[in-house]
Design brief:
Blueprint: H1 2-11, H2 44-72, H3 77-104, H4 123-149
Helix pairs in contact: 1-3, 1-4, 2-3, 2-4, 3-4
Length: about 160
């Protein structure tokens, strides 16, 4: 579902987003960054704490993107639905990670600050940041699934 969200997001942004070779700038997103290169080398509880923090930050960010896309693309119900589904999945996966952390006896993550409601001024920056949030969603869901798979007998080590 993660890759479909990014593809659908690109589809509704117009040029230059869908053009071959276009690479939007990787703008920072308040309250969330991509998984660090050394993430996989951390102990599993630390990986899961980072996953939980990212998953907690994603739903409000995805909601901001959904609201902005509703203004920019009111005739894109599938995109809006995918953004809602992504926020729901991030919340559910985050709750599952929190339950695993509790079962492992790991310290809960610290309090998260809500991302700034002021997202991006202007249409192009809003589209770029929306695409970035969708990409971060995809990265964190994949990272979390890989981190959780380490806990399954016979899973990757």
């Amino acid at each position: 579902m993660e890759h479909l969200l990014c593809a659908r997001q690109v589809q509704h942004q117009g040029d230059p987003f869908g053009l071959p070779g276009f690479s939007p700038p990787r703008l920072p997103v308040a309250g969330l960054s991509a998984p660090a290169p050394g993430h996989a080398g951390l102990p599993v509880p630390e990986q899961l704490q980072l996953d939980a923090g990212a998953l907690a930050a994603l739903p409000p960010l995805l909601e901001v993107v959904r609201r902005r896309q509703a203004e920019l693309n009111p005739r894109a119900p599938r995109l809006l639905r995918r953004l809602e589904d992504a926020a729901r999945q991030a919340r559910a996966l985050g709750a599952a990670v929190e339950a695993v952390l509790a079962a492992l006896g790991a310290e809960p993550r610290g309090p998260r600050l809500e991302p700034a409601a002021a997202f991006a001024a202007g249409v192009f920056p809003a589209k770029v940041l929306g695409l970035r949030v969708c990409g971060l969603y995809s990265e964190w869901v994949s990272r979390t699934e890989a981190d959780l798979s380490q806990l399954v007998p016979g899973g990757p080590v």
